[in-house]
Amino acid sequence: MKKIDNKYIRRIVYSIQFLMSIVLLSTMYFIRFVPMKYMMIVGIILIALMVGEYFLIFYKKQGSKRSLLTQFLSLVLSCLMVVASFYVYRTGQVVDLLGDEQFQTRAISVIVLKDSPIKNEYQLPEHLLSHVSYVDESTMDYTVSQIEKEVGQISLDDSSDFHQLVTKLYQKDVDAIILDEAFRSLVEQEKESFSDDTRVIFQVKRDEAAVNAKSVDVTEKPFLVYISGNDEYGDLTAVSRSDVNMLVGINPTTKQILLISIPRDIYYPLHRNGEYDKFTHTGMYGLQESIDTLTDMVDQDINYYVRMNFTSFMDIVDALGGVTVHSPEEFTTKIGGYQIQEGENHLNAKEALAFVRERKSFVDGDFARGRNQQRMISAIVKKVCSPAILTSFSQVLDTISQSIETNMPSEEMNALVQMQLSQMPNWDIQSYQIIGDSASMPCYSVGMNASVIIPNELSITQACEYIDQFMDNEKIETELGDLEQ
């Protein structure tokens, strides 16, 4: 009986390893991001192990130390394959999550002064409200209809701009205002203590339409990605202005990456109505407006977008274990007081954020900040694409899934990951920056003059030439080159 039991135990142990080998290979195949050559290597190793263990387990005496040791190692290997299958499956889930259709949420608030007798939305019909309708009439109409659906008819006044809106509230010419939270930054420019002086008594939420991708074969053809970053912490889905704006070109054929920095205050016509405004304000009308306006500027279709905020950026840097970035000069950041040395600097998340936000330490302010942002992106790309990332690949991808928004479909992300893991290319990163001159000009969203950057037309023309050449599969070399070298 004992001999029969041992025979069955050996068969069970061997069968478990065989089953786990099938599970691992099947998971790798169906998740689709593991290159075929790696799958073949893993398959060959697993088959060789199965053959070798078969002879060691079944052609040795049942009680021999070699047979028992082989059975033990077989169980250990089976457990490792269970863990490996889980992580491969989990990584595939993360990629699918990243590729889900993304919606931004627009929040529109009814705001009163802190000492206002109005305690809730049901008192609104007894009071006068004001709003600025011209910047986004459809959103204001929707908001008013939702408020009236909830509380009944309200008395409404229309302000000519945000300056007048704030003035009416503080002078108590109106009892409450309706403010799209995407435009709160404009109100706080008028009154820095606005958030401390007021409170929200009611809020209407509205989902923005998803931004459709213009898909291409990302392993064969060059494509453009708009990177949008806002200066907020916390929730990424809220509509807000875009403070970091960069156009990134990726060419899988020439193995080049092109970084085009667009200053936040560049003065350019909005796509929606042709009115001039700061580019940063396009984000307040939604990602689609930012992409459409940038498309007008560079005269090329933008295939995808990536959006992040301060929290996102710090989480990614943390997941990477910090980044090493090159600085052409020594300076101390105003935020945090971090000392940046000339040359290589290994920065943690807080130091990296201070590095990319710094502008007051430089003669050319925002332009220097834009170049440092390009240096940081270049440093992150190089670390993500290095073989060292393989040890923390799952953790980094998991962090990215929770830290950014993108409309790149999961199939295309899988294809990019496969290409990177299979070829491990050494990407050539080229940088360029649109420049201009400071001025004070009327801005549509503000309703009055504001500090802007009038773009140098030759600079925009040069940027367009680089992009055109890049998209035509030409190897390019910009004036700035790779800022990380």
From TrEMBL:
Magnesium as UniProt keyword: no
UniProt keywords, alphabetically: Membrane, Transmembrane, Transmembrane helix
InterPro entries given in the database record: LytR/CpsA/Psr_CW_biosynth, LytR_CpsA_psr
Chain segments annotated as transmembrane: 12-32, 38-56, 68-89
Family from the record: Belongs to the LytR/CpsA/Psr (LCP) family.
Endpoints of the signal sequence: none
Protein name: LCP family protein
Transmembrane helix in keyword set: yes
A Pfam family hit: LytR_cpsA_psr
UniProt source species: Massilimicrobiota timonensis
Domain Cell envelope-related transcriptional attenuator: start-end pairs: 241-384
